[in-house]
Write a structure and sequence with these properties.
The chain folds into 3 domains: about 110 residues, no CATH class; about 110 residues, Sandwich (Immunoglobulin-like); about 90 residues, Immunoglobulin-like (Sandwich), CATH 2.60.40.420. About 40% of the residues lie in helices and about 20% in strands. It has 8 helices and 12 strands. α2 runs antiparallel to α3 and α5 packs across α8. The longest helix has about 40 residues. It starts with a helix and ends with a helix. Bound molecules: dinuclear copper ion. Dinuclear copper ion binds next to loops.
């Protein structure tokens, strides 16, 4: 029945838009998610076995009743019900419980010592990311990790409860106010793994996505090094004008760009905003057009987010976009 059930699954996935590949527990890329995937297939196999058995018994009962016209007397069914209705389910539940406990225990910590620490703070609706071993290494909505190494993640929230979930790497861990929870990640192969807040946290819960980027050790080190120092690369004239617009507008009252006078922490740190995968935690692609739209009125892209519309003069907007694109 394995091939038949795979066919049913393919049909279900095609109907629900769940394609496998991106953001799927059934495409595990690390030891954490592989545990969940194994459990999923175990539960699925047991459920399919029970379904087939119940349907077979139902068919048999209908067929027999028609043929024999014998009425079942009270007491006849006691042994049958005791075996299939009590003993077998109990054995299955004990098995599933045991396997669940084994996996829960295995997920508590990686079997090697983590080489990287990441602190994550949940906000409505974005992720603040710190690398505590490197002071000032701050970004938002994306976590770079070295491939094949375990990474310790510490989680807390600045407002309501959220849940950190990167299905291809690890099951969910909640972010609870006043508490620091921890989990870990390890990716066995390089790639970009989408994650998602998995605890309803308000209007834009769906656009509280993040990206985990697993890359080689040298790539990771150079990305991390690039987070810290202010870029000394010379700015073009437009970028310089944009920097001045940024400094005198409301931008700098909420955001930080390290190496400049903007040091506010209300919104995401923008020091490497030009290199990030998205705007608004997955709400829009990070390209010049969407960036302009986001600055002028992000409420049209992600209604309810904390950033009010910005009255930037139309003549200043291209310079401001050029400056922000130059960061990172
Ligand atoms: Cu944060 Cu849902």
């Amino acid at each position: 029945w394995a091939s038949a059930s795979a066919g049913v699954l393919a049909l279900v996935f095609s109907l629900t838009g769940c394609s496998g590949g991106q953001q799927s527990t059934l495409d595990a890329v690390g030891p954490g998610a592989r545990r969940t995937e194994g459990l999923w297939w175990l539960f699925f196999g047991i459920s399919m076995g029970i379904f087939v058995e119940v349907m077979a018994l139902l068919g048999w009962a209908l067929w027999r009743r028609r043929r024999s016209r014998v009425r079942i007397k009270d007491g006849d069914a006691v042994g049958f019900i005791s075996a299939l209705g009590v003993v077998v389910p109990l054995l299955i539940l004990i098995l599933v419980y045991g396997v669940g406990l084994r996996d829960l225990n295995a997920l508590a910590a990686p079997d090697d010592e983590p080489t990287v620490n990441v602190d994550v703070v949940g906000h409505r609706w974005w992720w603040e990311i710190h690398y505590p071993d490197r002071p000032q290494a701050v970004t938002a909505n994306e976590i770079h990790i070295p491939v094949g190494e375990s990474v310790r993640i510490r989680l807390t929230t600045a407002d309501v409860q959220h849940s950190f979930w990167v299905p291809q790497l690890m099951p969910k861990t909640d972010l609870i106010a006043g508490k620091v929870n921890s989990t870990w990640l390890r990716a066995d192969r390089p790639g970009r793994y989408r994650g998602q807040c998995a605890e309803y946290c308000g209007q834009q819960h769906a656009f509280m996505a993040l990206l985990v980027i697993a890359e080689s050790r040298p790539q990771f080190d150079s990305w991390l090094a690039g987070l810290v120092p202010p870029t000394d690369e010379p700015l073009t004239d437009a970028e310089q004008r944009g920097r001045a617009v940024f400094a005198r507008s409301a931008c700098a009252t909420c955001h930080t760009v390290r190496g400049t006078s903007a040091t506010a922490t209300v919104g995401p740190d923008l020091t490497n905003v030009g290199g990030r995968w998205s705007l608004g935690a997955g709400a829009a692609p990070n390209d010049p057009g969407h960036l302009g739209g986001w600055i002028v009125n992000s409420q049209t892209i992600k209604p309810g987010n904390a950033m009010p519309p910005q009255p930037v003069a139309p003549g200043d907007l291209p310079d401001l976009i050029a400056y922000l694109r130059s960061l990172g």
